[in-house]
Amino acid sequence: MNTKHEISELDELLHELLNIGEMMLIAGGEIKRVEDTLIRMGVAYGAKKMNVFVITSSIVVTMGFADGTELTQTRRIIDESGTDFKRLEALNELSRSFCKNPMTVDELRNRITVLDKKTSQLQSCIGSAIGAGSFALFFDGALEDGIVAAVFAIIICFLKKYLKPICPNNVIFNVLCSFIAGVGICFCASFFESLHADKIMMGDIMLLIPGIAMTNSIRDVLVGDTIAGVMKFVECFLWAGAIACGFMLAIQLIGG
């Protein structure tokens, strides 16, 4: 890399690095992983100093170069985080490829655009149905319990797509989603005595409970990212409480 850097090109690069960090956070990446990835990619591009600060709701990156050029950008993370191991693996592969052979900003932007594609609704529905049905059977439910849990898993997928965007936050969505699913499950169990509402609910609740996010938050605290870990843990605790309240309201209203 030349000693004299073009500020506009570095701004674009830093912007793309923030895009990668944001995508990793939304896909469920750990704080340390995100920071380490951005640091390695910045150094590979020629930065002599990389200061990266990441929490669940913000990313701040400062790049310093040998010629005295310093650039800082920050990004507010407003999208709700989830878990997408396939996307995380693809982002890790992109970062490793970039570190081995730094590409141009345009090439990096094109690679990121390809990775930014959302998982199709059909894939999400099929995966959710298989997961919820399997968990219902795992928790000692009958075959019909697994089938009903799979059906309600598809309903939950559509609620995530159409109800979640109009909810002010994830807590409200979890209350409404679990309440709607709980009412439907209780109605089905009241009409068909062979169904076990508790087994079906346990299968479908696994689609909403933030288990991996909570585990990552504890890990963040243990490795020293106390602020980010505590923030995420409190957030996950509120989400879990909202899910429990929604199902409890449904049981109280309809009867379990």
Q: Which terms summarize this structure?
A:
3-stranded antiparallel sheet; 256 residues; single chain; mainly alpha
Amount of beta strand: 5-15%
Helix/sheet category:
mainly alpha
Contiguous runs where pLDDT drops below 50 for at least 5 residues: 1-5
**H-E string:** HHEEEHHHHHHHH
Task: Give the overall silhouette.
Answer: elongated
Overall mean pLDDT: 87
Straight-line N-to-C gap: 67 Å
Number of helices: 10
User: How many structural domains in the coordinates?
Assistant: 2
Rg, rounded, reads 22 Å
Report on this model:
- The chain has 256 residues and is mostly helical.
- The protein contains ten helices and three strands, in the order ααβββαααααααα.
- It folds into two domains: 109 residues, no CATH class; 134 residues, no CATH class.
- It is 67% helix and 8% strand.
- The N terminus is likely disordered.
What is the compact description of this entry?
By secondary structure, the chain is mostly helical.
Give the helix/strand layout.
Layout: H1 7-26, H2 31-45, E1 49-55, E2 58-64, E3 70-76, H3 85-100, H4 105-115, H5 121-138, H6 143-162, H7 170-191, H8 197-205, H9 211-222, H10 226-254
Antiparallel strand pairs: 1-2, 2-3
Helix pairs in contact: 1-2, 1-4, 2-3, 3-4, 5-6, 5-8, 6-7, 6-8, 7-8, 7-10, 9-10
